[in-house]
Amino acid sequence: MMNEDQQHSSQTLTTRQGHPVTDNQNIRTVGDRGPSTLENYHFIEKITHFDRERVPERVVHARGAGAHGVFEAYGTAGNEPVSAYTRAKLFQEAGKQTPVFARFSTVIHGTHSPETLRDPRGFAIKFYTEDGIWDLVGNNLKIFFIRDPLKFPDMVHAFKPDPITNVQDMERFFDFVSMSPESTHMITFLFSPWGIPANYRQMQGSGVNTYKWVNQNGDAVLVKYHWEPIKQGIKNLLQREANEIQALNFNHATLDLYEAIKRGEYPEWELSVQIMSDGEHPELSFDPLDPTKLWPQEQFPFLPVGKMTLNRNPDDYFTEVEQASFGTGVLVDGLDFSDDKLLQGRTFSYSDTQRYRVGTNYLQLPINAPKANVATNQSGGQMLYRPDRAPGQNPHVNYEPSSLGGLQEAARQGNEHKPHYDADLTRQAIGRTNDFQQAGETYRAFEDWERDELIANLVDALRVCSSGIQERMIRHFSEADADYGRRVEKGLVQGGHRKIKSGQTDPEQAVDLSKRMGREADPY
Q1: Cα–Cα dist 87/500, whole Å
Q2: Which residues contact 171 (CB under 8 A, 6 or more apart)?
Q3: CA angle, residues 356, 361, 363, in degrees to nearest 5
Q4: CA separation (Å) from 41 to 36, 46, 48, 146?
Q5: Is 297 exposed, middle or buried (0-12, 13-18, 19+ CB in 10 A)?
Q6: Quick one: pLDDT at residue 10?
Q7: Are strands 76-77 and 80-81 parallel, antiparallel or unpaired?
Q8: From the candidates 139, 236, 398, 434, which is the catalytic residue?
Q9: Which has the closest alpha carbon to 433: 300, 337, 277, 291?
Q10: Per DSSP, what are the bridge partners of residue 206?
Q11: Which SS3 state, helix, strand or coil, does residue 58 take?
Q12: In what helix (H) or strand (E) does residue 363 lie, and over which residues does it extend?
């Protein structure tokens, strides 16, 4: 029998094999900034189990709407030829058109959840380029809650409904957030009116993560992607307005997009990029690879590179919108990964999810299939309905290299980008976390009515939380801006710890109302 020194506590976090986890905050990377390595076994086990938690609904982004359209390139990035930065073919020529499919979604709640809930919105675009598929997968908000992918399953678990009651609980939500100070900036946006877009047509989109562009010479720059509504503008909702809409129709955003396209009022977004030289940029107060941060526009202006128009509704929702499958690792030549840790974790997770959720051969479905040639040596798997063979390929040869008429490697389209690394393989957070500065800048940049709504929503949500959670959140808000923390604290002091009587954050309110308002009836 083992003694106490030989046992680990029943409260100790372990892997599924029973191995105690000594660091559940950081994946293993080359240096503190990355890249990550494939032998991150704890992360891989954790994320692959997470990817398989829902059958068959998406774990996140389950509620969605979509439409077909076209992307038209400008041939420039701002005032320069785009070829100075990237050799990706879809951007090179002014007027060049690429078919696209867009899927908009809410993140946390299920397939038939209200589209009025406070939640980031997914903004995912599939480009059917001549070089194959490019998926630009992002959100309406330009930043995120966390910076290390090891925390992603924990974050979603905290935000989703309680595993016992099956009801979302703000105490669980803020328990995680209060222990994750890097979330402060995202929370500032999420609990402001920006947390409830009026519809899908009138919201921004962002790639969130930092990517790279690579030109013909193999030179790379860091880029961030941003979608801005061109003619329809941006609209957000106050909580009371969202409540009123939800009482009438909880599918309003899906219907709005469908009806607008049906009327011929095609929504348009301009795609812009921010560009930064590849490097650590010690002159900045933050790490440019940190997805919880914005790149200041005065230093890194938005450079327009093209526009997207959505002009055709799906013929069938399930076939197209529900089965549309995206991945952050789906890039074409001239586009590349940065060492953004969250991006590298998402790149494994997203495509792994699609293989599980839709099937091994999900890429053969028309909505996911490239319009370019497909020829691989992969075969078999559930629901395979055609071999990926090239015309004239020897069908007996499903391997490479071969001298018997098999597939051959393609010629390079430009010089390879070869980033250099000279750092220890380590588990370590990035050096410049700076979790509160931009949250304060965002708070001060809001208009008065936006700040008022932010404070009211936070106070309503935090009233159900323990005093320890409240104190941590007040401390984070105060670090961001003294007035920010003071106003949240004042609101909580005035309201005490009672459950609220307005808004959406008190599930008990609806229970009480149903008891009081229900009408008795005789049996029949």
Answers
A1: 55
A2: 464, 465, 466, 469
A3: 105
A4: 11, 8, 10, 20
A5: exposed
A6: 60
A7: antiparallel
A8: 139
A9: 291
A10: 139, 226
A11: coil
A12: none
Say how far apart CA 86 and CA 217 lie, in whole Å.
9
Q: Which residue in the block uniquely carries the two structure tokens 């947390």? A: 195
Which tokens go with 274? 């921010």
Q: Which residues contact 110 (CB under 8 A, 6 or more apart)?
A: 57, 62, 63
Alpha carbon of residue 430 to chain centroid = 20
Q: Which of 142, 153, 138, 139 is nearest to 25 (CA)?
A: 153
Distance in angstroms (rounded) separating the CA atoms of residues 352 and 346:
10
HSE-CB at 517 with a 13 A cutoff on CA atoms is 6
- Identify the active-site residue in 61, 185, 226, 476: 61
In this predicted structure, what is the pLDDT of residue 229? 96
Q: How many CB atoms lie within 10 A of CB 79?
A: 6
* Chain centroid, CA 251 distance in Å: 22
Q: Which residues pair with 105 in a beta bridge?
A: 64, 122
The whole-number pLDDT of residue 123 equals: 98
Contact 334, 214 (CB under 8 A): yes
Q: What DSSP character marks residue 120?
A: -
Nearest Cα to 50, choosing from 40, 60, 41, 37? 60
Burial of 246 (0-12, 13-18, 19+ CB in 10 A): middle
Single-letter amino acid code for the residue at 5:
D
61 flagged as catalytic:
yes
Q: Which amino acid does the sequence have at 370? A: P
Within 13 Å of residue 223, how many CA atoms lie on the same side as its CB? 27
Q: Which of 499, 461, 512, 511 shows the shortest CA–CA distance to 192?
A: 461
- Sites in the chain below the pLDDT cut of 50: 1-8, 55, 498-503
Separation CA 285–CA 277 (nearest Å): 16
Contact between residue 485 and residue 475 where contact means Cβ atoms under 8 Å apart: yes
What local confidence, expressed as pLDDT, does residue 475 receive? Answer: 98
Instruction: For residue 38, give both structure tokens.
Output: 């494939």
The structure's pTM equals 0.90
Examine the residue annotation and report whether 139 is marked as an active-site residue of this protein. yes
Angle (deg, nearest 10), helices 448-462 and 467-480 = 160
How far apart CA 221 and CA 279 sit, in angstroms, is: 9
